[in-house]
Amino acid sequence: MLYDDVDTVDLKAKVTAAWQDFTRALARALPTLPADVRLDLTLDPTASGTGEAIYDINVVIGSDKQMTGYAVGNANLPDGYRLDRTAVGHMIELGWSPPGVIDGSDGNFGLHAAATEGPQLAALLSRTMRDVYGAPHPAFLTYTVRPLNEAIEAAPAGPSTLATARPTPTVPEVESAGQDAVLSQAMEVASALPLADKVRTVVAALLKTEPDKLEIDEEGEIGVRAGSAMVFVKVHENPAVVDVYSPVLTEVSPDAKLYERLAQLTRRMPIGRLYCTDNTVWASVPVFGRDFQPTHLMLAVQVMMGLADELDDRLHGEFGGKRFFGEGDVPHKPASGEERTGMYL
């Protein structure tokens, strides 16, 4: 679907591996949940830009350890975010019963699963979030474990192993084992700091260095080298956005073929976009600063480092131009009669 283009094969492998890790972790966690609790998986609307649309799945563990799942349906989604016929058909193919069929589902999809079907249920939940609800990466998911009876405490260590998914902040004593231990400790110290300081803390932890040792220019942009490419991280206060971007190629000669190529690649990227302006090809992945989530920035930086270093070589071979650290690169000179335009993507 999103990841079948040969030009993003490295990125595809990383994203696919993350979903596989998440599915395995979920399969391990489900059998450890005690009876009479509910596991909630939610696509973070702040990070995914879905606004008031909440794409979530609830799994109820009954007193007999039988599992009942509920996945949000169109009756509980606002206009513009409802599932089309293809998506509804995909839900049925995955094994969900139509809304209202399972007791208690009301306007949501439902299913029953035996206690021994943890791996199958985990795969189904993962595919629903990824393929139907459009989660680009498990780092965009949050989870909670809620007792059906207030006298029952939330589940212990099991759910904390959900790989890169994050616990919902309002639920106490549930930690995300998917985050690197160093990052977790650093963010605990930086939690009350301004956004720019949080960003520096995350990038430093990712690069295994100290914030004061980062390469930061006079405009406050953090520079990170990725092979022949350079990745920049810049904080915007109003609106609160962290821009992770790279000048993939400079001194290119834009033409219809270049714009078509960039549009094709952008459609196949799980997150971010490619565009050309001022004779420079840019790659960009924005991260929301409001309700800042360290894992989202980590994902964006990691994606951009791999993407920029891969694409600057590929696009340079096709369209010329100069890579950031490309020694001997020369600007591309269009052949006689080659179309040039002043548009940008």
From TrEMBL:
Domain TY-Chap N-terminal: 18-141
Record-annotated TY-Chap central domain positions: 197-326
InterPro entries tied to this protein: TY-Chap_M, TY-Chap_N
Short name of any one Pfam family annotated for the protein: TY-Chap3
Protein name: YbjN domain-containing protein
Organism: Longispora fulva
